[in-house]
């Protein structure tokens, strides 16, 4: 009889503090908030930035994409480092880089400095999602992870929601470069708190951890590994990557181009555009929380993770693409705003379920690396989406038709990614297959 790896991980280590687990989770949620505030600030000040720097949509698209030039490489590198180095210090180092980059733009607001700083910011932010998910997984069993990881994603979209009105106010009051100073300060505040709160969880593979020693007989928290090629060529891993890449494409458009589209193509004021972006983020939060609790309820009733997690994420993404297309062709007004909020918010539930489904069948010794690779793959959409969007807009003379065409392409990408995931994702099947391939090892 085949064994379910998710069940084998449920061995309870000793000395787990629920209070500490949730305190660390709160810090990871705040980290996501700072992270996405850092990302969103460029899109929110795009119009005055382009005017002051004398650049067009194509050049701005380059700036928006530059965040992701080193994103994937750093995500993979840090993922492997997470197999050996405490996530507390990896996360600390990342935020130091973030803050330096924001202050650099504030001090020298030129095209060259913005480009260089955004590239370095991407290097620092690349590992964030994978390391955060890995850090949370060290504090919770598999069946408990949906909510804490969903809350991290709530923090991400909360970051956009908070940044939208806040950054817009700072930019219109003191100038766009001061918006970068504001998000840099937020990173410094988080660093100070993390020094006192950050800690490794008991579901760790470290043989030096007394907490994990009690679970040494579990293949997922003991010294067992599987070939990386088999892990990443599994249908679930491929399916999760396709769904999440499509969702990340939409997210990259929200942070880089949606405010500009609303102002230039649809005539909204900067404040109104910021409120609509905030509405997209709040919609995403509602969907994320609803999906997390719905998944938990389904799993408690015996529904398999293929449906409770996989169909939920992939189906939501495909439907989200449909709403993006409907919003693209709707006339300006309340209906279009509602359609865009649903379209750009609904598919983002996959960021919770994707990481959790991968954690179902990946041994903990390799989880940090595999999640790093997963994040590297899906965030590659951040390189292509803003640049392609800007290229389409500029090719059409920066007209409303150009924006409409670019949004149409985005909607189709999201639909296709969701449909691929519906076909491929099945975590339990892959967990049983990977279990047969695992072998003990003496090194991480």
UniProtKB/TrEMBL annotation:
PROSITE patterns: MFS (PS50850). The keyword Cytoplasm does not apply. It is a multi-pass membrane protein. Its main location: membrane. InterPro entries: MFS, MFS_dom, MFS_Na/Anion_cotransporter, MFS_trans_sf. Coiled coil: none annotated. The lineage of its organism: Bacteria, Bacillati, Actinomycetota, Actinomycetes, Micrococcales. The chain crosses the membrane at residues 21-42, 62-82, 89-109, 115-137, 149-170, 176-197, 237-258, 278-299, 311-331, 337-358, 370-393, 405-425. Residues 24-429 form the Major facilitator superfamily (MFS) profile domain. This is MFS transporter. The keyword Transmembrane helix applies. Keywords: Membrane, Transmembrane, Transmembrane helix. It is found in: Cell membrane.
């Amino acid at each position: 009889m085949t064994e379910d790896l998710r069940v084998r991980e449920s061995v309870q280590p000793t000395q787990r503090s629920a209070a500490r687990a949730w305190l660390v989770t709160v810090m990871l949620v705040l980290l996501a908030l700072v992270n996405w505030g850092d990302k969103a600030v460029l899109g929110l000040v795009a119009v005055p930035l382009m005017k002051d720097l004398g650049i067009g949509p194509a050049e701005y698209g380059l700036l928006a994409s530059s965040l992701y030039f080193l994103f994937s490489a750093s995500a993979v590198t840090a993922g492997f480092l997470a197999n050996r180095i405490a996530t507390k210090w990896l996360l600390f180092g990342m935020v130091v880089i973030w803050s330096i980059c924001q202050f650099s733009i504030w001090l020298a607001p030129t095209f060259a400095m913005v480009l260089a700083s955004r590239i370095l910011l991407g290097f620092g932010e690349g590992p964030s999602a994978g390391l955060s998910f890995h850090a949370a997984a060290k504090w919770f069993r598999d069946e408990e992870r949906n909510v804490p990881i969903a809350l991290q994603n709530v923090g991400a979209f909360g970051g956009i929601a908070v940044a939208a009105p806040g950054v817009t106010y700072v930019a219109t009051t003191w100038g766009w470069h001061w918006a970068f100073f504001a998000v840099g300060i937020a990173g410094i505040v988080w660093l100070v708190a993390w020094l006192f709160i950050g800690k490794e969880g008991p579901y760790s593979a470290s043989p030096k951890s007394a907490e994990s020693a009690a679970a040494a007989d579990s293949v997922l928290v003991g010294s067992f590994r599987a070939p990386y090629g088999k892990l990443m060529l599994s249908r679930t891993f491929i399916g999760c990557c396709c769904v999440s890449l499509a969702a990340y494409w939409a997210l990259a458009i929200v942070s880089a181009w949606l405010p500009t589209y609303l102002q230039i193509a649809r005539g909204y004021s900067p404040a109104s555009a910021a409120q609509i972006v905030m509405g997209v983020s709040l919609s995403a939060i509602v969907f994320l929380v609803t999906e997390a609790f719905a998944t938990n309820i389904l799993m408690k009733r015996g529904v398999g993770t293929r449906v409770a997690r996989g169909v939920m994420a992939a189906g939501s993404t495909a439907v989200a693409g449909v709403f993006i297309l409907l919003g693209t062709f709707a006339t300006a007004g309340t209906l279009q705003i509602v359609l865009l909020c649903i379209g750009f918010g609904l598919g983002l539930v996959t960021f919770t379920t994707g990481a959790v489904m991968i954690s179902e069948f990946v041994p903990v010794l390799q989880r940090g690396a595999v999640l790093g690779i997963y994040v590297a793959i899906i965030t590659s959409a951040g390189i292509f989406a803003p640049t392609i969007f800007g290229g389409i807009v500029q090719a059409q003379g920066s007209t409303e038709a150009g924006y409409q065409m670019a949004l149409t392409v985005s909607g189709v990408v999201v639909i296709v990614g969701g449909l691929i995931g519906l076909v491929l994702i099945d975590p339990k099947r892959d967990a049983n297959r990977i279990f047969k391939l695992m072998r003990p090892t003496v090194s991480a």
